[in-house]
Amino acid sequence: MSSPPTTVPTVLVFAGLDPTGGAGLQADIEAIASMGCHAAPVATALTVQDTRDVYASYPVDPGTLIESARAVLEDLPVAACKVGLAGSVALVEAIHSILVDYPELPLVLDPVLASGAGSPLAAGDTQAALVELLLPRTAVLTPNSREARALAPEADSLEAAGQALLDRGCELVLITGTHEATPRVVNLLYGNLRQLESFEWDRLPGEYHGSGCTLASAIAGLLAQGHEPLTAIRQAQEYTWESLKHAYRTGHGQLIPNRLFWARSTRASRT
User: Fold this and answer.
1) Phi, psi of 202 (to 5 degrees)
2) Is the pLDDT of residue 268 over 60?
3) How high is the pLDDT of residue 116?
4) Whole-structure pTM value
5) Radius of gyration over every alpha carbon of the chain, rounded to an integer in angstroms
6) Which DSSP category does 10 fall into?
7) CA-based max dimension of the chain
8) Which of left, alpha, beta for 45 (phi over 0: left; psi -120 to 50: alpha)?
9) Does the 10-149+206-270 domain belong in CATH 3.40.1190.20?
10) Would you kindly state where each structural domain of the chain is located, as residue ranges?
11) Which of 258, 240, 236 is nearest to 249 (CA)?
12) Helix, strand or coil for residue 136?
């Protein structure tokens, strides 16, 4: 007699739908599955984009988002939550209204403010809502350096931005350094009112579509598996770097991270 199927942790994901499959919900699903978890994706927006840029974003109805998320939370064993593109004040408020009822869920927030090409995806009032409503609820915030400066405009350095974001209520802030003019990529981790660690990675030659989604979702998946936050942050960075190293081209713009590189390597070793 076969044993009952094993339950795997679920990560509830709020993010936009990218029709290229490079970023947004598909990136989240692949990264979360790679961490051994099940992704429950709730769309925040339908987007018009290719691998070069985002041309339009159409937010979903906040009421539909709330209904979808609550249906998942009442049925699946959700162990963590990841938020990416919110896109409007109403959607930030909707997500907040759900999370306040589940204070035990660790939240990983990837504050998507613009496309990789720089097109804005979150207006100033939406950024203010993120800071006011979601940052105080966030276990791990994963802004790139541009996003960190935008969310903490009073800061005169990345270190000051990290401290300011902690002051806004985040438990941990991981500022990624891809956009900085450094020989290697330096990611800075802040917590407990100080810089906790600096992670250095070889700078890869390409530009990548969905790298931030990959990192944040991998952290969420590892938290759902029960890893301590610092362990999850370290392992998620390694996974993300390998995904970028194995990236492939599908269009005329940015490369797509190969978030399933491990599966192809395993299959090749069996042949």
Assistant:
1) -60, 135
2) no
3) 74
4) 0.95
5) 18
6) E
7) 64
8) beta
9) yes
10) 10-149+206-270
11) 258
12) helix
